[in-house]
Amino acid sequence: VLMCIALARPGLAGVALPAPKPLDPQAKLCAEPIARAERERHIPGQLLAAVAVAESGRWLGKDRAVFAWPWTVTSGTKTWYFPTRETAVAHVQTLKARGVRNIDVGCMQVNLGYHGYAFASVEQAFDPEVNVAFAAGFLSHLHAARKSWALAVGLYHSATPSLQNRYR
């Protein structure tokens, strides 16, 4: 965008733009498989990325942006952003030991109660490649069934109509 502004405004054409800052390496863990899945599954550009940010978005102040966070766990109304996969897995194991079944995990916040069958283990559910691949396949399946990306996104979030509408 800044390059376009510099080219469009003659007075800025010679102004050196600051180099982009490198992102937190963990912020990239979700972004790269998401971009690949969008291309491979023919999901409209940035749609899966938007779902990921809605699901596991975390503000990283040093990057001044919100990113899908791979070590996110949500249960009910409580969300935790862990620094590592190991700490996220340990928390899920604790929740499961308490009998909690409504647990969303990873970049795409895949619900283990409904979709746990898709993963060989909790550790695998947190693998960004595996988590995103399942979510992209699920969203694509919903799109094929409904012939609408908007409806698919709503259903990705919930089968409850009022929750779908708000989420979309």
Give structural notes.
The structure is a single chain. The chain is α+β, with helices and mostly antiparallel strands and 168 residues long. Helix content is 54%, strand content 12%. Helix 7 (128-146) packs across helix 8 (149-157). It has nine helices and six strands; from the N terminus they run αααββββαββααααα. The chain is globular, with a radius of gyration of 18 Å. A four-stranded antiparallel beta sheet has the order 4-3-5-6. Strands 1-2 form a two-stranded antiparallel sheet. The chain has helices at 2-8, 25-41, 47-56, 85-97, 112-115, 122-125, 128-146, 149-157, 161-167; strands at 57-60, 65-68, 72-75, 78-81, 104-105, 110-111. The relative contact order is 0.12.
Count up the helices. Answer: 9
H/E topology pattern: HHHEEEEHEEHHHHH
Proportion of helical residues: 40-55%
Show unreliable segments: 1-12
- Overall shape: it is globular
Structural class: alpha+beta
Query: What does the radius of gyration come to?
Result: 18 Å
State the major sheet: 4 strands, antiparallel
Compute the separation of the termini in Å. 26 Å
User: Within the largest sheet, what's the order of strands?
Assistant: 4-3-5-6
According to DSSP, the number of beta strands is 6
Taken as a percent bin, the fraction of beta residues is: 5-15%
Mean pLDDT: 88
Describe the structure concisely for a colleague.
The strands form 2 sheets. The protein has a 4-stranded antiparallel sheet. A two-stranded antiparallel ribbon has the order 1-2. The protein is globular. It is of the alpha+beta class.
